[in-house]
Write a structure and sequence with these properties.
Blueprint lengths: L6 H12 L8 E5 L11 E7 L17 E7 L2 E7 L10 H14 L3 E10 L9 E9 L26 H14 L4 E7 L8 H9 L4 E3 L3 H9 L3 E11 L10 H24 L2
Parallel strand pairs: 1-4, 1-5, 5-9, 6-7, 7-8
Antiparallel strand pairs: 2-3, 3-4, 5-8, 6-9
Helix pairs in contact: 1-2, 2-5, 3-6
Length: 274
């Protein structure tokens, strides 16, 4: 199914969603594991389950509600996805990036992505919010492979995938709110297993500060469509081998629950300035 997804499918999905929401969003937001609570700050929300959207499979990962929420945040019309599609669930890269095409078809010109990830920087602690400066695609999959889609840049420039002006804005908002942000490089891996000690040592030498299993396909599609991108990573734990205890998904969700309020405040502050 996902191999046939393209702009027409995104417009079809956007048409279905558009009839059920009361805003034309300017900003699209993708919420990672355990971060769906951010959507509670959306005012006058309209909700659309993924199951009702053409081309969307159901969300299967714990911590992902599997619904689209549209309304206003800080006075700005937004649409948020509480959940995403991971390649480790069996989806291909095109489907992992497809929701971004739908957000763009709905009217969003800016994309804010968030995720939960393991920290490979020794100074990171659980609960740190990292502003994504850049990423490394270690999934070795690309959602743009195949015939060029209408509206896409065939060879999108990725020298600055995460918008510098938006990062500067996020830094200012963070300082005002008492949540200083550290910038870092995110590494996207296929998963679903966590990394070995040797892999973490390799990733650290490659210059990565955090590792996760999402986000990269979404950002690639966004840049091909000309969208501005801002990314936040919630560091939920030290990556495998850097901590004494084994990592569990429950630990990830517990940490994101603690951080969600601060991240919600940050996202709201940024969106209100757009």
């Amino acid at each position: 199914m996902s191999e046939r997804l393209g702009p027409a499918d995104a417009r079809d999905a956007a048409d279905v969603i558009g009839k059920r929401i009361g805003v034309r969003p300017r900003v699209g937001i993708i919420l990672g594991s355990g971060l769906g609570g951010i959507a509670r700050g959306i005012e006058r929300p309209d909700r659309v389950p993924f199951a009702d959207v053409p081309g969307f499979p159901s969300a299967t990962v714990v911590g992902h509600a599997g619904e689209l929420i549209a309304g206003t945040l800080g006075g700005t019309p937004v649409v948020a996805l509480s959940g995403r599609f991971h390649m480790y669930e069996g989806h291909d890269a095109k489907l992992a990036g497809f929701p971004v095409r739908v957000l763009h078809a709905l009217g969003a010109s800016t994309l804010i992505v968030s995720n939960a990830a393991g920290g490979t920087r020794a100074t990171f602690e659980a609960g740190t919010i990292m502003l994504i400066r850049d990423h490394v695609n270690l999934m070795f999959r690309n959602p743009l492979i195949g015939p060029v889609e209408d509206g896409d840049t065939r060879f999108p420039d990725m020298s600055e995938p995460y918008d510098l002006e938006l990062r500067d804005l996020a830094q200012r908002i963070g300082e005002e709110q008492g949540t200083p942000l550290v910038e870092g490089v995110y590494g996207g891996l296929l998963g679903p297993n966590y990394e070995t000690r040797a892999e973490v040592a390799m990733l650290t030498r490659l210059g990565l500060d955090a590792v996760g299993m999402s986000t990269v396909p979404e950002v690639i599609v966004a840049r091909a469509l000309g969208m501005r991108v801002l990314g936040f990573t919630c560091i939920t734990n030290l990556a495998c081998g850097l901590a004494a205890a084994p990592i569990t998904h429950e630990e990830v969700l517990e940490t994101t629950a603690r951080v969600a309020a601060r991240l919600q405040q940050l996202v709201r502050g940024v969106v209100s300035k757009l």
